[in-house]
Amino acid sequence: MKLNENQIKAVTCDLGPTIVIAGPGSGKTQVIVKRIDYMIKHLQCEARHILVVTFSKLAAEEMKERYQFLFGESSITFGTLHSVFYRILRRSNPNRYALDNLLLEDKRKNLLTQLLKEMDTDEGEEFLDGFIKHLSLMKNQLIIPKQYEPNGISKPVFIELFNRYEAYKERYGLFDFDDMLVECYYLLKNDEAIRKAASQRYQYVLVDEFQDIN
Question: pTM here?
Answer without folding.
Answer: 0.87
